[in-house]
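Appendix B. One record, verbatim.
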Amino acid sequence: MNDNLLSHFLQSPIVNNIYKQYTDKRDFWNSSDISLRYLMSMPPRSKGKYFEQIVQNLCSTIYNLEVKPPKNSNHDRIISSYTTEIKGSFTWDNKKSNWTWEQIRKNQDYERIIFLGINPNEMFMWWTTKEDLELWVFPSEFGKAQHGGKNGKETFWEKSKPEIPNYFRTFDTW
């Protein structure tokens, strides 16, 4: 009986669903640079390190901001004297600009947070303050706790769907 499990599985409708999701995602990202596709396939912790490096490079070269290493593990960089957390997201569900930034921690010592959003051939960055998160993300009535259900108190998420949150700021206001 066990010898036929793979054969049975390969003939099941599940295989078609897996294949369709894989090919849809592959086709959506096919026009993007190979390095983005490779980065997308990495585990979350590795992606996070690269997101930090991307943001550091953009802040220092495009926006001419001073970027220093963190003082401790409760933030990712110090950017122009602000302790800064960095979150990145590839667009979800093969829809442009459908980002979800996860693992936003309330109890870490950062003053600002940068959100990096990546589409197949586009990259965007915004920032906001921790005070803004206290107003728009951390309150339980917004239901943005990532773990612990409605009463979660440690980690949170933010989405760009259907549009970028109104408290996000552009880098000309850093």
